[in-house]
What does this fold into?
Amino acid sequence: MRSFGRILLWALLTVAVLFAGTVAWNWEMVRRVFLGGVKIYETAPETIPAEIVRPSILVFSKTNGFRHEDAIPAADDALKKMARRANWHIYITENGGAFTPRNLSRFDAVVFNNVTGDVLTLEQKQAFRAFVEKGGGYVGIHAAGDNSHSWRWFVENLIGTRFIGHPMNPQLQNATVKLEGNHPATIGVPRKWNRVDEWYSFDTSPRSNGFHVVATLDERSYSPRGWLGHDLAMGTDHPVAWWRCVGEGRIFYTALGHTAASYAEAENLSLLHGAIGWAMNSSAPECSGSRAVQAPLHPS
It folds into this structure.
């Protein structure tokens, strides 16, 4: 019995050492995912090059939460090519100091490329909110809609729902995306297409919060099960892309885009191109005058 006890003790010590070593080796990810994220903020205004003139987009990919190491550079590269073809100027940064009233006035839209965590100071948040409400565009990609964002105004007005998880067995699955309605983002995109991605589920459909859905997921085409088989099904209404207006601003969010391969996919690129082009267009009829869908605006 003493021999068995020593063996058990050594086994437990070995497991503890291995666990501690794993945590230490992956400390940055542990902080970002399990300990509330890192708290890194830039306070000095960033200087935007003089050659950046409108029409232009600001692409922001800062991460104080989980970082999509493969998807972020792939999306940046795809957006550069897209901007070149569309004759848009593009500025890509991870510096929150870009968010000043003067800097933002030089852009037609801001794209959050898999941004995670609390990434802006109070002053930067105020500048960004004013930019949107006064007519600026916003496009959020994939992790911009995860549950790491603590800014209430951002979550309620630019995303409109809460992320609750994604499949884990397997994490990436082939599923069917279905388009509905008519929106500039859907021009040239098949009304139904199959693709592989990490599929987000949300606590409610953003329709209930005044957003207009342009793409849903057919849950019969994949298995919406999370950790330990947790049921992530949303039923027949499982949105993955939607839009609305906030004040005079144009808002579009797409949950697609976890993998680098997403940004070489013709259908997804067409969806992004249409969404960004629409968000940049201050004369977009959907957000003009009395036809604007007004969001509830919270001070926090």
